[in-house]
Amino acid sequence: MESVQAQPALLLSPPRRWMAIVVGIVAALPYLRTLAYPFVYDDGSIIVANTALHTPAGLIKAWALPYWPPAVSGPAGLYRPVAQFIYALLWNIGGGRPFAFHVWAVGVHIAAALAVFALLAFALAPRVALLGALLFAVHPVHVEAVASIVGSADALATLLALGFVLILLGARDRGAAGEPLGWRTAVILGAVYALAIGAKESAAATPALGLAALWAWRPAADGTPRRMAAALRRGWRVWLACAAALAVMTIARGAVLGEFSPPAGVIADGIAGVSTATRFWTMTSAWPTVAALLFWPAHLMMHYGPSVIPTQHAPTLRAGASLGLLILCGLAAGVQRAERRPAAALAFILLGYLPASNLLVPTGQLLAERTLYLPSVGAVMLLAWMLGAFTEHLARRGIRRAPMVATAAIALLTVVGLVRTTGDAGVWRGEETLFTSGIAADPRAFHPRIQLARWYGRHGQEALALAEMDTAFRLAPNKEDLAFEYATHLLADHRAATALPMLAQASAANDTSTRLRLTYLTTLLTVRGPRAVVDEVTAHTGAGTVAGGPLRFVVLGNAYEKLGLADSAVAAYAAGVEQAPRNASMRAVFARALDAAGRTDEARAQRDTAARLGHDGG
Asked: Distance between CA atoms of 78 and 76, rounded to whole angstroms?
């Protein structure tokens, strides 16, 4: 059975040690300022509000809890027990102070940059590996995954995926040529894979990344290209162990969440409720944006919504160009049989991005910069390979200063990236700064305005909160949860007359939303009186509309009572009971109306039934 001791490329032999130190320092520098930052944005819901993690028992509970606390956000369809365990550990060690969490996030990024250096060193000259790792260390697209504490789940998943690949490559190099990897290596890699997908679901493609590296990232010792069939055969025990690990984590996910796919309510705006074809064209049209973030991140944003990635119901020029370029890259990589390292780099980009791409299944984000942390490894692999190939080409032509010029160019890019990333990390120093930056980056986006409105509300600035909520509603008037939240704030501020037309519009646009319909009817009762409610409900009931559910008959019955029409009120409540026969509260209201109409025997029967339903939990 082969050993799983690390190779020099993994442990960084003495000649490379100073390079590793440089990479670690450079990776840390842009994020030192984040060590003083508070909990920001989703940190509050996932860490601060999740009190189950705040005691030592939370170290155990973390393995049986959803990632988003249901009491805070409702079901979100996420299961990340490894990340949860680390949050519980850090909370108990650091007493709930954000400093410990930020130290962890920066530390994971440093470790990931070192792992990228080790991966590059497997197939490239040490100097080129150093330059590539420096680009990774200061890549601006990583800001969200490091400056945001919960964003560090992406960095952790990437670190574990890289660890998987490095252990796999090291085991291959130590074993006899062509000999399958042993069970010890397979079990270890299966465990690493389970931890990776337990940190975040985006690490699901880790075994495929390992296979791509095993096949293409470095030619054999004699310079001949490796064969995919040979890579599959050599790692068959590893692939089997990974399949078992995936099955275990999938079963655990189902046991904790009660479902295997995200609930419909958390799917991102723009792809929620659309056809598979629409989702495909929407997301492939966004590939140029993804490529720009990976290779030339001129602009960063806290949120990418439909205003940036509009819904596409048919093929677009951007989608066609993206798919065409993908095919050309695949053909070019296939033609170069003797040089497959670009194919490995492209595989890292595509496979790293695929789980979050919304192509396989819809997710809660159209695009998030943190999800590009793993694909950026492939981008750096490709750039480093291109740099190495270019300098070698120039050297063969007698241009001796080519390595020096290349080194100077990458050093300049590193400095630019360092300055840029340090500045971008400052956006995460507080929620007001973060949300304001989101509005500045995309004035048409409603999401950062909602978040800013909530921040204003938490800090007692109700006028500013309502102003931002109003702007957000004007930008997205058909968004059901936004309309309901805005209406709730207006009604709490005793502005029912302002809320009424907004509720009428939102209720019409979301004609199956019970909460919007009921809020609209109760507001209509307050502003325009009972006759308006009677006219509204009876008109829509005649058309077969069921928005508002059985409770709309309670509002209708209340309106009839205010008009002094006792028999009509009884009929309305009876209709509600007919639609919801096991609702004890509905029967109690019906009984009160029957008493008012002098039908005491019927009222007593309804109260008895309500009591039985209440006793039975009905």
From this structure: 6
